[in-house]
Amino acid sequence: MQSLIKSLKVLEMVSEKQPVSVGELSKMMAMPKTTVQRILWTFHEAGWLRLLEGDMPRWTISPRVLAVRPNELAGGGLASAVQGPMAELRDATQETVYVSVYDGSGAVVVFDRLESPHPVRAVSPVGDIAPIYSTANGMAIMAFLGEKRIDEIIDAGLNAFNPSTITDPAELKQELQRVRERGYSVNRGYYRSGIFAIGAPIFDAAHQPVASICISMPDSRYQENKIDHWGNLTVKAAQSIGFQKSLKS
Prior knowledge:
By secondary structure, the chain is of the alpha+beta class. Helices cover about 45% and strands about 20% of the residues. About 35% of the residues are buried. Keywords: DNA-binding, Transcription, Transcription regulation.
């Protein structure tokens, strides 16, 4: 039993700190590298972890985590609740619509997608994992987390994905404050260069952000003077999903 608990703790630590190396995990968990390595490869063979090759190989959680999402999400709950609002938002904006769920640590996972009719469009696969602090869906959720959780995410490190990524903690907190004030987030290419997005949080009955919805587009179709219009449409879609109501119906 202790061996199983130890293995699960390694899995949880990867989820919280990803991408993370064997050496970093060994130090954080005060465990021998050989033990950590064995656990990582066991989860890798089972499909729960994936290895990012490079000068220093690092580990991340696999999208397989979606396979064990709560039944209410996989069944008639969120999965069915998002269909109408996603279609309405896509038709109103003609842009790709994503719904993502918060993984409880520092990332969001694409739960569903409805593509833009434009031949040039932004596409991320269902199950794609992205950092919470540099994506529209992520920032829409992060802005409404508790101050302690926000600080924990920031303290874990703000990696730059391109020159536009917000990596200064003070600047990020200011941006999150703007999200709270207007009700939606704006991603001006912070994660993927040339991809702009606008997102809004989906709350549960306790007013906790558990998911989000966004529209995503290439910078060639992004128009600053349409932000308020797009933002209001996205907020309306998020509100109409009725997360808790759907789970109980």
